Amino acid sequence: MEQLKSIFGNKLLYSDVPYHFHQYKWFRSDEYHFIGIEQDALSEKELALLSAFLIPYEAMTTTLSAEQSYWYQLLFEDKPAVIDELDKFKLIRFTYFSIKRLFEQRTEFEDALSSMYATPITILWDNLQSGVIIEKVADSSELTRDLQDSVTILSHDFESDMQFFEGQLHSFPFSPSRAFHMEKSWFEQVQKVFEKEKVIKLSTTLPYWLIKEMSPAAKEQMNTILSLIKDDETLLNTVKCYLECNLNVSLAAKKLYMHRNSLQYRIDKFIDRTDLDIKNFQGAVSAYLAILAAESLNQ
Q1: Tens digit of pLDDT for each residue in 66-108?
Q2: Could you tell me which of 272, 290, 279 has the C-alpha nearest to residue 245?
Q3: Residue range 39-63: mean pLDDT, rounded
Q4: Which of 37, 57, 77 is the last residue of a domain?
Q5: What's the domain range around 149?
Q6: 93 and 179: one domain?
Q7: Is residue 142 a contact partner of residue 92, using CB atoms and an 8 Å limit?
Q8: What is the pTM (predicted TM-score) of this model?
Q9: Does residue 128 or residue 35 have the better pLDDT?
């Protein structure tokens, strides 16, 4: 790669996402990143030589439908346009997906995705392992609400772990490019935090962002709530699971492979040691934020 850089200089660039296909010829490297070289800097001989040891990446725009091209220009070509209206649609939602392995079965995957939604969707890929689903509806009642079971089946059928991130609902007017890049950045930042979740909802990540923006001093102060149990990792993990199961003892016990009575004992122990009644809303919220703050300090 260093030899290529010495030959093509500033005519060569690296990117996770190919773009400006009219200007650059793109190749996929072994590390699944992309190398772009300005087309006017490539001779036919050089192009043939590069194609022998790098995989040429054909321009996505040559195979896009009119609808996909419209959204591709809005989201990927740095056009910060504000849309005031879009036909009969009132709401837009972006759902981002990431596939753990290198993925080539695009057509089959897109067909499977389309079957998961109650309304027509637009699918765009930003690289070989991730992309975005654009959901357009006239009313919020038309939204596809629960993807969990469908994604589990999808992972099984395509023999790959994958994650989905449901962005917020956007009403008009709004800037698609700004919303897309902001939510995509959020997804990339929380993937490891929620690595066990197949479907991540924006609402689920809000406590994480709250803790992330909190000062170290504030986190330390919150951590004092757990001072008597800070070393009891099993208890903290148990209570966190209970809270994430919406205070449902039966569901939490099932997830933890525990008997209900054993879980109830740990809940009572937590309440006794912290004086936080996690059986009610206020105590549950306080305990959950305290646990997240403790985890943040230990990272």
Answers
A1: 888 888 888 876 566 788 888 888 999 999 999 987 667 888 9
A2: 279
A3: 76
A4: 57
A5: 64-201
A6: yes
A7: no
A8: 0.72
A9: 35
